[in-house]
Queue: 2 jobs
Job 1
Amino acid sequence: MQDIMSNFIALDTITILYLFGVGFVGGLVSGFIGSGGAFVLTPGMMSLGVPGLVAVASNMCHKFPKALVGAVKRAKYGQVDIKLGIVLGVSAEAGVLYGAHIQEKIKAAFGDAGSNLYVSVAFVVILATVGGFVLRDAWKSYREGTSNDEEKAGKLAKWVQSINIPGTMVYFKSINARVSVLFTIPLGFATGMLAATIAVGGFIGVPAMIYVLGAPSLMASATELVIAFVMGLGGSFKYALSGLVDIRLAMIILAGSLFGIQLGAIGTTYVKPFMIKVVMGAIMVIVLFSRGLMVPVYLAQLGLIDAMTDSTVKLLKTTSFAIMIFALLLGAFIVLRAMWQGKQAEKLQQAAGALEHGKV
Amino acid sequence: MAQSTTRKKPVAAMIFMGIVSVALYTTLLLKQDEVNSVFGKGGLYAFLPIVTAFVFSYFHGAFTGHFWTVVGVEAAKQKKEVK
C-alpha cells in the first residue's frame, strides 16, 4: 500500500453538490426501476479525477445501503419478493466475481482500450436487444390499450413455470408459482456478470424476472433492489479489503440518493406498472447510443481502425457523457411526471368520492 | 387500508434524525483525512466502510423518509394490487 492518500481526491463545495445532485437523480430512477444511476456515477467520479477502481468501489458502497433503504420502503407497499431477491442475489454475487475475473483477463491481454471496448460492446449488444424488447413491449401494451390490465406471464415465463425438475423447485410469491432454481441461477449469474461489466445488473435482472420468470413489473423492479443490496454488500467488502472505497464520496452520493430513492419508491404507487418498462426501456436505448459513440474511439486506440485526432476523441467522449446524463434526467422526468399525474388523478377520485357520499 | 388523511406528521422524528444525520456528515467531512488514512488500509479495516454505510443509511434513510412525509409526498392512498 504505497500511498493510500493518492486514491482520495480533495473535495470542494461544487464537487459535493455535484455528487449529491447526481446521487439524487440516480436514486430517484433506482427507487422506481430497481437500478440505474451507476452508469453515470462511475464515469462522473472519474471525470473528477477519482481513479477508476476507487470510483467503482465507492459507487458500490453507496449502492448497497441505498438499495436496502429502497427495498425496505417498497416492501411496505408489498412489492418485494425477498426470497426471489436473495436466491437471485447469491447467484449474482458469483456472477460479479466471474465478471470481474473476465475483466481482469481482458485488461491483462488487451490493455485499457481492450477492456473499454469489451464494456462498450457489452453495453451496446445487451441494451439493444433487451432495451429494445422492453420498450417495444411497453409500446405494444400502450397501443393496444392494455396498459391498465393486470400483467400476465408471457409464453416463455409460462413455459418456465411449467417445467418441473424434482428437488429444485421453489415457490416464489411474486410469480405465484414454483420455479426450478436451475432457471434462477443462470439469470442471477447473468445479472451479476452484467453488474461487474457495465455496473447496472438490473438491465438484465428486471427484464429476466418479468419475461423469463413471469413476475409483475412492480415486483420485479422492487426485488431487484434486494439483488442490488446482496451484490453491492459483497462487492463493497471485496474492494474495501484493498482499501479502495472512498467513504466520503460514497456517503455524499448516498445523501442525495436516499432522498431520491424514497421519492422513486413512492412514485411506483401512483403509476401503471407498464411505466416501469417505459422508463427502463427508454434509459437503456439512450445509453446504448452513448456507449455506441465510444466504440470507434477504442477501436482506434487498439489500432483496428485509423487513428483519431485528440479533438475528435474529446468531442465523442463529451457527447457520450452528455447523452448518459440526458438518459438519467429523462428517466427522472418521466418518473416525476407520472407521479404528478397519478397524484392529480387520486385527488380527483377522492373529490368525486366525497361528492358521492354527500360530504361536500 | 384505513389511513387517516389527517395523520400527525412525524416532524419531531424528522428533526431528530436530521440532526443525527447532519452530525454524522459533519464529522465525516471534518475528519476526512483521518478517516481516509484508516479506511484506506484495507484488510480487517474493510469492516469500517461497511459499518459506516449501514449507520448513515439508518439515520439518513429515516430522515429522508420522514422528510417526504412532512412535505406531503406520500404513497397513493389506494394501494395498487401487485399480484
Note: Chain A touches chain B through 54 residues (CB under 8 Å).
Job 2
Amino acid sequence: MNCEQYRESIAADPSFDGGAGHLAQCADCQAYRSEMQALDLQIKSALVLDVPELRVPDLPEIQADNVVSLNSKRFSPPAWFAMAATIVVAALIGVRLAGTDITQDTLGEEILAHLDHERFSLRVTDVAVSDDRLNAVVPKDVARMDHSAGLITYAQSCPIRGHDVPHLVIQGEHGPVTILLMPEESVSGPESIRGENIKGVILPVGNGSIAIVGESDERLDRIQERVLESVTWST
Amino acid sequence: MQSSENGAKRRQRFDQYVAVYHQDMYRYAAWLCRDKAIAEDVVQEALLRAWKSLDALRDEASAKQWLLTIVRRENARYFERKRLETVDIDNLTASQAALLAEQPDDELDNMRAAIYELEDDYREPLVLQVLMGYSTQEIADQMGLKQGAVLTRLHRARLQLKDRMARL
C-alpha cells in the first residue's frame, strides 16, 4: 500500500485499520490519519441535531386496514352503521386512553415522589460509584449495565410500586440525571414526567421500563440514547 | 380479546422502536431534506407507514435499518409531491436556517454549513456512516450503490469538508 492508497482508504473511513505496515513507516500518513479522525469528530458533532419532542401521529386501527376480503361481493354498510361503529370505536379508544392515563400518572407521580424523598442523590460530583456497588444494586440476574450511559455517581436499590429497583444517578450536562431501571413495570408507550424544574420520560424497554429524569434544560434525548444502549434486561 | 391483546403487543413493539430510533429517524430526515420542519413531516409520515407495515419486520436486529429506509422513501415521496427550488445557503427559510445554527458555536456552525452545502450524493453516505454507524456495505445496500462508489463518495465528501473548513 502506498501513501495515495492509504489516504484514500482513511478518508473514506477514518476507522480503517488496514495498511498497518505502511502506516508504521510513514509519518505523513500518520499525521493525515490523525487529521481525518479529528475531522470526523467535528463532523459527528455537527451532525447531531437537537431532536424535537416526539409526536406520534394518529395510528389507524390496523385490523381494519389489513382486512382483505376473499368474497367477491363486499359488504357495504349503510351510513347509520358506519356512524354507530365510529361512536363505538371512539368510546373504546376513550376508555383505553383513560385507563392509560391513570397508569401513567400513578407511576410518574410515584417516581417524582421518590425523587423528592431522595433529593440527596442529586449531587453534582465527579466521583463514580464503585463497580462493586453498581453490581450490588444492578444484579446480573436483573439487568446488565455497562458504563457507557455516563458517570454513575449514585446507586441505590429503592422501592417503586412494591419492587426494589435500581435507582442510579449519572451526571448530565446541566446536573444530575436520575435513572430508574424497572424490569417489572411495563408501560404501553413513552410517558412524560414533569415536576418542578425537572422533566423526564418513562420508556418501554422489553417487558419493563426505564425512567430518566433530569433538569428542565437537560438534553435527555442524548442520555436516553446512551442509557438504552447500555442496559439489557436479564429476565 | 385475543385480537385486542395482539393489538396492544403490536403497539408496544412499535412504541419501543420509536423510543429507541426516533432520534436517528429525525436526524437522518433532517440531513436528507436540510429543513427541520420538513424533517418532522417526513418522520410523521414514516412513523405512520412503519406502523402499517410493522408485521413485515421479522428481524428485530434490522429495525433501525428498516426504519431509516422508510424515512428515505418518505423523504423522496415528499419531494416528489412538492418539488422545491434549489436551496441557496445565503437565502434560507427560518426552518432551513435553524438546522445550521442550533448552538452558539462558530466552529460547529461552520462545519454544519459545510455539510449542508455538500451534494446530496455525498452528504447522505456521510450521515449514514458517521451518525448512524453504517458500514460501507450497508450504505451501499441502503443507497443501491456498489461499495466502491460509496467509498469514493465518502472520500470526496471528507476532502470537500476538509477543504472548506481550511478556507474559513
Note: The two ends of chain B are 64 Å apart (CA to CA).
